[in-house]
Amino acid sequence: FTPFQQPESHHGLYKICHLMHRGERLASIIDVLDICRSVHLFPNFGAVVPHEWMSSTVLELCSSFFVNLFSD
Questions:
Q1: How confident is the model at residue 72 (pLDDT cuts 50, 70, 90)?
Q2: How far apart are CA 67 and CA 34, in angstroms?
Q3: Contact 67, 6 (CB under 8 A)
């Protein structure tokens, strides 16, 4: 995902998107010992949630997310 920029002004959440290079998503495999904590993402769906989005597909189908700062 893209690095954090400035939080959105109307709700203070950070927006992230899939990191792309030449039209393909960039991803890395990391050691499980390098994981510090989990993160809760809100899909950025606008006025209407697409019907094809489900918990099993939303990470692939949604292009941007907001990071939940209030989940701790």
A1: low
A2: 20
A3: no
How many Cα atoms occupy the beta-carbon half-sphere of 44 within 13 Å?
Answer: 13
Mean pLDDT of the region 30-52: 91
When pLDDT is cut at 50, 70 and 90, the band that residue 71 belongs to is confident
Residue 52 corresponds to which tokens in the numbers above? 């094809």
| CA pair distance 13, 50, nearest whole angstrom | 22
Query: Tokens 């189908």 label which residue?
Result: 61
Residue 64 has pLDDT above 90, yes or no: yes
Closest CA to 42 of 57, 62, 18, 28: 62
DSSP structural state of residue 52: T
Which DSSP state fits 7? Answer: P
